Amino acid sequence: MRAAGLLDGKVVVISGVGPGLGRGLALQCARAGADVVLAARNEERLAEVAKEVGEIGRRAVPVTADINDHAACERLAETARNEFGRVDGLVNNAFATPPLKDLTRVDLDAVRRGFETNVLAALHLTRLLVPALEETGGSVVMINSAVLRHSRRTFGAYKMAKAALLAMAQNLATELGPRGVRVNTIAPGYIWADNLKWYFDHLAKKRGVTAQHIYDENAATTDLGRLPEPDEVADAVVFMLSPLARAVTGQCLDVNAGEWHH
């Protein structure tokens, strides 16, 4: 599946570019016609993804940055403007998972650090790019999580942060709508990428079963009987960034193969 042409001539800034969804976001935006500014802490990984974008025929500018560092975020925003003269889209994909412990036991300082990365850092980067997005009638997409849809034990601190991110996105949609900027949210569940494959291998060894058995157990909870891959989640983001979603703002789209209905 290709969304060729949907983002022709556009420039998209993507934070949290890793080997899974971050890479998928960069490549799918490029395949849709966009040039990209890629941000992450791992310089080597950024270079690898930037090279792949170049092989598609689009331009990628890697910026080594920790989004918790205000100066680094300012440098990221400045680089995007200086290199391309415009910004049409921002995808806030960087995140941190707080300790997976019950709320009655979790370390509160760790919870605060999770809020810093998942919510406040995303807000800061968005604010920095609002003037550029306003000039182009641009779009912001927050990458959230299916943790919004359940209240399982040990996920409380993570759900708190992601619920706050959703509330922030909805309020930003109201504030920025009159300025021509749309703000939406994508909420994926499990994404079938390297990190999840490693985790399923770990669970399989712990339980004495195959990794395929773990996959099948989890896939059985979805309507489609499988787990989404990075490109499939990224395609939903491309849609939200594109003119096809020009009347869509303040919304949260679940991309989970039907695991949760909302």
From TrEMBL:
Keywords: Oxidoreductase
Domain Ketoreductase, residue spans: 10-195
Record has Oxidoreductase as a keyword: yes
A GO MF term: oxidoreductase activity
Matching SMART domains: PKS_KR
The keyword DNA-binding is assigned to this record: no
Alphabetical list of InterPro entries matching this protein: KR_dom (IPR057326), NAD(P)-bd_dom_sf (IPR036291), SDR_fam (IPR002347)
Protein name: NAD(P)-dependent dehydrogenase (Short-subunit alcohol dehydrogenase family)
Organism listed in the record: Actinomadura hallensis
